[in-house]
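Handout, page 2. Input:
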Amino acid sequence: MSLTRVAVDTKNLREGMYVAALDRPWLETPFVFQGFEIKDRSEIEQLQSCCSYVYVDIDRGKLTEAEIRSLLSTGSETSLPVRSRINRDTPKKGLVARLRERLASGGKNESPDPTPYEITSTVRREAPRAKEAYEHTLSRYQSIVERARGVGEVNFDKASRAVTPVVESILRNPDAMAWTIFSRKRGARDYSRAVATCVWSVMFGRHLGFGRPELQDLAIGGLLLDIGNVGVPDEIINAEGSITIVEFEYVSRHVQIGADILAKSGRFSDNVLDMVRYHHERADGSGYPKKKVGQHIPVFGRIAGIADCYDAMTTKTSYSPAVAAYDSARELNDMRGKEFQAEVVGQFLRMIGMFPTGSVVELSDGIVGVVLEQNQVNPLRPKVMMLKDGNGDPFDQPKILDMQKLPDGDRGSEAVSIAKGHEHGAFGIDPLNYFA
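Output:
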């Protein structure tokens, strides 16, 4: 039986090795982006600082199998089960085949090919356009809900036009739209939840390399996930505190009501209908209303489910505070291989990052700011716009701190790290104020 991975002592790591797994959970290390080829010495040092050994995929990376095996310490080799392999020369046959190739079970394919989309705008330049797109979609969604409540239909053309600016902004620079979402004060039952779920769905599709028509479907579906709430009594939708079993039965009907509204309206694709029908299903069968499991949940339903779940975590409700983005990432990781397919969680976390752009963070020296730009090598050390000092007083002018240029750990008096992530709106900070 041929091996695809071997365990390598971190003292023996070399540039060109492909690190497929660690000796501990990814989220306990700086390497939340699971699976990568070692590019330089700094990555080796980071791995040595947090791991005793790692699993190296001998079929990937620049080193040959013979070169890798020559670096193994005596007795350090560990055999892992053969993983399912994907023939990358096989033509891709449609969306489901593409996504299954990217998210197929097994560690070898947890790192999909890089997204084909390029960043064509900076966060600073795109932020005003992202805000405008957000407001456009929010306004249009309000009229969509009114029509659905009045005549039980949704106009396809209006729904499509409502989300197009969001898709275009995310294609130019997804960080700017994430920044916009995290700057909004949102409630669990207001229309902004629909726009946010639309955004996370499109961002995930962009990350996975979906084509433009599919991104449009993700945007429409994300926006309309809960359109069926128009058929649920307002006193239940707006109830304070946790709901009773009887009230939950009413709430759960919104899934079928929404699917019926879109089916009656016509022209909505199967992808959009799958998002509405299955966004509350869970891979372990704990969801509703059909108790679907695993591969029986359509691809677009799986994407809708994790996007909706993540946004619910980061949204304040009458009975639950908003969870900081960092803590939400850890909660999602706990659902890995349970409520959600493991590979879906891995890729979603890779897309969002540990501290998403626009999220509020507190540094180890007490300074408070917002994440300005991601660090793809070490997601725990992003670029931060510092807004308030350790006493809580605002700086006269925001200061930019590039954390990847600072000393690590206790090396020197300038060493600093992110101590805590906070919910959006913490400390009265509206990030969009700094892009006027």
